[in-house]
Amino acid sequence: MIEILKAIILGIVEGVTEWLPISSTGHMILVDEFIKLNMSDAFMEMFFVVIQLGAILAVVLLYWHKLNPFSVQKGGAGNRITVKRETIEMWMKIIVSCIPAAVIGLLYDDEMNALFYNYQTVAIMLILFGILFIIIENKNKGKRSRINHLAQITYPIALMIGLFQLIAAVFPGTSRSGATIVGGLMLGVSRTVATEFTFFLAVPVMFGASALKLVKFGFNFTGQEIMILLIGMVVAFIVSILSIKFLMGYIKKNDFKAFGWYRIILGIIVIFYFSMQML
Asked: How many domains would you assign to the chain?
């Protein structure tokens, strides 16, 4: 029961922090210090990635009408399936955005984990992108966004957003959603569109990352490991639905500066806590 409770807590943390631009990795590192699952290091490395599948299914559920490239039209002779060209084009732009992170992730996943998966990197990136959020929001205050619809995102802009996503793929603590939203805001994309595009980018990225970790881990799960993984994913799915709805409602009336300040404070806490542990 204790291990199940730990998996539930980790699922809650994942569901909240995956979509808010505050770094799920930073929070997971802190939570793992206090709530350690009694599992192997190999399982935990895989768990922290694959648990995201629960979170991504929340996006698929909430935005199925925008992600599904097919529509069914009812007629006298029966139903006819048509392709939504605008949705297909959006998926092409998503693929373009995913290319940088996918290439680097496939080639250098283990090397990046060895070099950068540490509290120093997490803390620095938390603080750095927290500062960026505040600077960009202050700079954009009172200005009208150039891009206010998903269809207005061009392929070059999609690629540039993908480069920001690459930063998050390399440096833990950046926050994948935080990096892509920052990139979108810097390129003149509205908060709502930048956030939605970030959600959609997560679909292939998280599926790909999870598949890679599962293959590396192998499929020789024990019964307990399967149970812990499924519980974490289900909880992350439920909490993600609530988090996504909260964030989309919040940014319609507010900017991202509060998340920037939160990141800075969390980064300082990470530095202080782990520095004390080393004394």
From this structure: 1
Q: Which of 238, 179, 233 is closest to 207 using CA atoms?
A: 233
Mean pLDDT, the chain, integer: 89
Local structure of residue 154 (DSSP, 8 states): -
DSSP characters over 248-268: HHHTTT--SHHHHHHHHHHHH
Contact 10/232 with Cβ under 8 angstroms?
A: yes
Query: CA 200 to CA 150: how far, in whole Å?
Result: 11
Helical packing angle, 2-17 and 52-62, nearest 10°: 50
Look up residue 80 and give its DSSP letter. Answer: E
Q: Note the pLDDT tens digit of each residue in 1-55.
A: 788 999 999 999 999 999 999 988 778 878 877 888 888 888 888 888 889 899 9
> Which residue segment(s) compose the domain that 27 sits in?
2-278
